[in-house]
Amino acid sequence: MKYLKIAIYLLVVAVLAGCARGEPYKQVVKTAPEIAAGQGRIYFYRKPGLFSDAGILDQPVILLDGEKIGRARPKGFFYLDVPAGTHEVVVHTEVDKTLSLTIDAGETKYVRTELTAGVIRARAVPELIEPRVAKKEMRRLRLGGQASANGDGAASETAE
Question: Measuring CA to CA, which residue among 110, 122, 128 is closest to residue 29?
Fold first, then answer.
């Protein structure tokens, strides 16, 4: 019985450690700096849902133009300001999935990762989402897995 309690405690700690714990989406949007001239903003988020939230151990790495920018964390999102132009998003899982997108200066885009069942582990697919849909899905998410603690677009992951 003692070992069962310890195992349950460790599981709870692992679950809490795996979820995003930062500021809520609504707060981040209000306090985010303006997009710099010649830049666009990309929000990356993990689609909320039973399978996605249950997969706390699967936090796929997200690459932008070959650089690691963060992870797809349960109940989490982050954003990155990037130069206007075409960019490639890769979500690294059992099978890498790629999304190419073009962003204009001053524009904001939303990339959702959705976990699906894989043979060995979950797979995550990046998908460009309409702003109206993305904002609705993100309203209960928290900042986490981000590339930059202050949202300035620096490509150094802080929430590992």
Answer: 110
